[in-house]
Design brief:
The complex is a heterodimer of chains A (250) and B (603).
Chain A lengths: L4 E9 L6 E9 L6 H10 L27 E4 L2 E4 L13 E4 L6 E3 L2 E2 L2 H9 L20 H11 L6 H5 L12 H12 L7 H9 L12 H5 L6 H22 L1
Parallel strand pairs in A: 1-5
Antiparallel strand pairs in A: 1-2, 3-4, 3-5, 6-7
Helix pairs in contact in A: 5-6, 5-8, 6-8
Chain B lengths: L5 E4 L3 H12 L4 E5 L15 E2 L11 H11 L6 H20 L14 E3 L6 E4 L5 H18 L3 E5 L1 E8 L5 E8 L5 E5 L2 E4 L20 H8 L4 E2 L4 E8 L6 E2 L3 H4 L3 E5 L16 E2 L1 H5 L9 H14 L10 E4 L5 H19 L8 E10 L2 E2 L26 E3 L17 H22 L7 H19 L8 H15 L6 H18 L13 H25 L17 H4 L1 E8 L2 E8 L14
Helix pairs in contact in B: 1-4, 1-10, 2-3, 3-10, 5-14, 12-13, 12-14, 13-14
The chains are: A alpha+beta (250), B alpha+beta (603).
Chain lengths: 250, 603
Amino acid sequence: MPRQTIELRVKRQDTPTGRTRWEEFSLPWQPNMNVVACLMEIRKHPVTKQGQATTPVHWEASCLEEVCGSCTMLVNGKPRQSCTALVDSLGDSPIVLEPLTKFPVVRDLQVDRTPMFDALKRVKAWIPIDGSYDLGAGPRLSSGEQETAYAFSRCMTCGCCMEVCPQYNDHSDFIGPAPLAQVRLFNSHPTGRMNAQERLDAIMGRGGLADCGNAQLCIEACPKEIPLTEAFGELGRQVTLAWLRQLFSR
Amino acid sequence: MSAPRVAVVGGGLAGLMTTLKLAEAGVPVDLISIVPVKRSHSVCAQGGINGAVNVKGEDDSPEIHFVDTCRGGDFLAHQPPVKGMCYAAPGIIYLFDRMGVTFNRTPEGLLEFRRFGGTLHHRTAFAGATTGQQLLYALDEQVRRHEAAGVVKKYEGWEFVGLARDDAGRCVGLVALDLRSMKPKAFAAGAVVMATGGPGLMFGRSTNSIINSGSAAAAAYVEGADYANGEFIQVHPTAIPGMDKLRLMSESARGEGGRVWVPKKPGDVRPPNSIPEGERWYFLEEKYPKYKNLVPRDVASREIHKVCVDMGLGVGGGMVVYLDLTHIPRETLKKKLEGILEIYEKFTGEDPCEQPMKIYPAVHYSMGGLWVDYERSGDGFLAHASPRNQRTSIEGLYAVGECDYQYHGANRLGANSLLSCVYAGQVAGPAVLSYLKANAHVDDPRRSVLEAAEQKWAARFADLAKRDGGENPYALADELGKTMLENVTIVRHNNKLRETDAKLQELTERWSRASVLDHGTWANAPLSFLNQLWNMLHLARVVTLGALARDESRGAHYKPEFPKRDDASWLKTTIASHAAAGPCLRYAPVDVTLCAPVERKYD
């Protein structure tokens, strides 16, 4: 017999500095439900399992098909997108929802991932084109180069890798895995390569590549299976070469 | 006087391209977006972007692309803007290639192209099956470069709520709500560009992101901007049903050879792989031997509806058909369709390389949107940098992307949406620059106007924040979605449309008795939603009444009572303007001087 109800335990916090509390919810089970659908049901009837009226749970969501990165949270302790967290695959125990811990909480399950976007500025994660006018075709690429680059260009800045990284926390300057992988992406592009040194400069100092502790948890956590650790190996080679070049040009 | 700032609302492809054009010209931009721009709905576009680069020796050309697009849209789009877009398309694809988009490649290292609906040519450039995401990221990166240089200032997590207009009616700024502090703030702007996407949420579940409420465009309409062709809503033939949303299964699955079929025997319970070839009905291939599975979306959705609803042949008796890729090698599928097959597997638990996918039509795109002007050049294109291009009926207010109505007529061809977003942005940038230049002499009366607008919205939200009636706004939105989905999508009947309009008025009345659910003053999403819902209800009437009035069938608008296109009476643009009693409809002629309307046939 299919289960009758879904139980959720949600960690709540009204404001960035407010006290946290847990609330429990119980909803009728329906086929093909995901965590987002549960939160949508709750807001249509915001009452706890104990029958107490409450406010709808606050969370961030947009595409609901795991390409925008918005709805990342801890589901049963694991960082992931709540849209692809299918209820039937989460077992029979209450589903536990918490905000990511490496970013400041805005409210309930929403966190502020601005540091990730700032890091993209710091590492100059773009191709410095001459202008957005029609200047003819771009550089040729082999299918192999395209496939390698595509793997990195799917990073949706969701924060899963940052969440599990032991080196990324509020008492370290480490820039984190996601922006490093973008350096790998842009430094391998035929045009991006022309400014490779600027990006390497950004990750050669304090909080840069050298602060990676090689725990390799990031690659396990990435929902898009981006080969992060491979990127760090490649960047290590680039950084060493750059360092040697600097040494001998002195 | 310091250089005027421009406010761009929305950070999807259209908004970012507009921003980039303005920033390149040194104009400071305030970029206001409800989500971090990198999370905008453009990420959901999958299959690709059209441009007649002609790499397959098929004698493709921008002119053929133009003709396909006019015909695909059943001749309801003004042709000069469409022509401008199709001729600009190859250059747009090259531009993205230069920005580093990881487009798929031919063995020689050139851009690879695939087929899409409504054309017989390989014209669609693609990056796996996440092309929209890749194009959006490229523009996000370019705009970040200008942000780092201080030209662009982003307001992410801010929601557009209304316009600021001076005594002459010109738009001189806007009011946006900070979704954390919940305080409205006025932004002065030499011009405002709406790039706020489609209204999928009015249909409840659709392929749209849940941020696509259409609320911003509806708010502009309520404040006086005309809204055009609202009744033209595209239903995509292939989506994956879900409780929270209907996830798109890209047309590229058919572009790469996917076949649509149903079992010939009604209610056949056998698993699809055990149904022999002879007992399957490939109905699109049989009815349309020339375009086969790649007929335009309106045609495919109607056929699926016919087969499932009228003939009762849907899989399991429902509105479900098979989309079959199992005859294509896994290796090929992985290279060309990875993103979408992964989505299917993650949400259904079935491997589409082994099992035919179960798919279902879903609301996907609005061809209609804010009415925008254009200036035709002598040779039938858009006059470059004319301040009229992409301008709404309000001076100083522009619109681009899905929230404008300009490029797709009565039905959009697949892989033309990314193109139209980018092209509209490229057109709007220079148009706004010309407008700013022409208005540089205008005195700056904005302060009092802006203060008044800000106060108006502060009072409005203070009122909404107190609402404590019995109606739950999310439950009301559910009712709205169900009604619209049932009556205003693939098949439309006038009696049902009338009932729908009555229902919309009932929901509007009940809205006034809604509860805000949350009286907090920080990050109060229900408060923002309550305001959005009011706008959605108004826009839903525009869609419904536009459909009721149009007694013909054209593109995505199909009435069994009037099954033929009627050019004599209806080759005209619907223009809705807001009045207290509801939308007032009027009509304007369509410029079809470049490609004469012919009967639309794909068999």
